[in-house]
Design goal:
Elements lengths: L1 H41 L3 H37 L2 H7 L4 H4 L2 H31 L9 E7 L5 E8 L4 E9 L8 E12 L4 E13 L4 E11 L7 H5 L10 H13 L5 H30 L4 H28 L5 H22 L3
Antiparallel strand pairs: 1-2, 2-3, 3-4, 4-5, 5-6
Helix pairs in contact: 1-2, 1-5, 2-5, 2-8, 2-9, 5-8, 7-8, 8-9, 8-10, 9-10
């Protein structure tokens, strides 16, 4: 059995690596065709463009993993069936399900690897955008900007001095509710970062509170004050606000919470966050679906393998884009929308496995 497991793993791994290395080149070629005029207009050096594509490779590989896993599965199983290796295994008392047990295990490993890679992609995408001139690189100072904190505070900063850990001219607002939490409007001449306590000390300012339900006003003057929930470091405030695709999973979740507390309905962002989990999980599910299908229809050689792989990929992408659009529009719950194709393919996979003669 160990020999058969090693054989299946070797055949799958060889085909998977081949496609995973080749597919990103197709993504690069397509992106280059779309953006070559922009690179020329911005006079970006060719070495800088090449480096930006190197930083985009994690994203291209992440997109390639489910397709590569499907192609490797289909070709591995169909070749074993067509060359009578599957029949020989069954004659030795090894069932189809046991013979291909390594494929779903490999799919599970690849799904976990895809989840890890999806946390790297936002970091590399931001660096690629900086090299292309789509984003500003790290700054040494920042003036006249607005920053939404993770706790729902909206900061308006006149000048940030990160070297000294000081803010000159600060206004902060937080929207309350109509039952228990007041609206807060706060101004401060200065704010000083305390690296030991991990917070800011506000100096010489004024606080205006509006209490529900009638929103009676209360005015408070202060010399020094520490604001709970305002713990962003000078480096975090210095950073240019990230685009959603440049945020990691937890960062995107915090950003969604801020928008929801502000009364927004970020269906599109919730859909994008759910997709960060659904796309890597699709590798495991598609491998489960492709293995019994390839065994049942293994006729036609390589042409069959390519055709069935492309067919499954196109159907899955069509369903995913459709459900993603429904989730982004708020027609159905964004999380359910993104996972619907995976749920459908998982059900079909189990039906195929149950119908496969072992």
């Amino acid at each position: 059995m160990r020999i058969l497991d090693r054989y299946v793993t070797r055949e799958f791994g060889r085909l998977f690596l081949l496609f995973t290395l080749a597919a990103p080149l197709l993504f690069v070629l397509g992106d280059w065709t779309d953006n070559v005029d922009t690179f020329t207009e911005r006079q970006i050096p060719i070495t800088q463009v090449v480096l930006s594509y190197m930083f985009q490779m994690p994203l291209f590989i992440l997109y390639s993993i489910p397709i590569a896993g499907l192609i490797a599965t289909v070709f591995t199983v169909s070749n074993m069936t067509r060359h009578s290796e599957m029949a020989a295994a069954k004659a030795s008392g090894i069932s189809f399900h046991r013979a291909i047990i390594m494929l779903p295990l490999l799919g599970l490993v690849l799904s976990v690897g895809g989840l890890a890679l999806s946390e790297v992609v936002p970091i590399t995408l931001r660096r690629a955008a900086e090299l292309r001139g789509d984003r500003e690189a790290v700054q040494v100072s920042r003036s006249d900007f607005v920053y939404p904190s993770a706790e729902g505070w909206v900061l308006s900063v006149r000048q940030l001095d990160p070297d000294r850990g000081r803010i000159h001219g600060l206004a902060i607002e937080r929207e309350g509710d109509r039952e228990t939490r007041p609206d807060v409007h706060l101004i401060a001449d200065q704010a000083v970062w305390d690296s030991t306590a991990g917070g800011w000390t506000l100096m010489n300012g004024l606080v205006r509170l509006f209490f529900p339900p009638d929103f009676d006003e209360r005015l408070i003057r202060y010399e020094t004050m520490t604001l709970t929930g305002f713990d962003e470091t000078p480096e975090q405030l210095l950073a240019t606000p990230k685009e959603p695709d440049e945020m990691r999973y937890e960062e995107l979740g915090r950003f969604i919470e801020i928008l929801e507390r502000s009364g927004g309905e970020p269906y599109q962002l919730r859909t994008e966050q759910a997709a960060r989990l659904a796309i890597p999980a699709a590798t495991f599910i598609i491998i489960l679906f492709g293995a019994p299908l390839a065994n049942a229809q293994a006729r036609g050689g390589p042409a069959f393998g390519i055709g069935i792989s492309l067919g499954i990929t196109m159907v899955y992408l069509l369903l995913f884009r459709l459900s993603e659009a429904l989730g982004g529009a708020g027609t159905i719950d964004p999380v359910l929308a993104v996972w619907l194709p995976n749920i459908l393919f998982l059900v079909l996979a189990f039906l195929l496995i149950l119908r496969t003669r072992s």
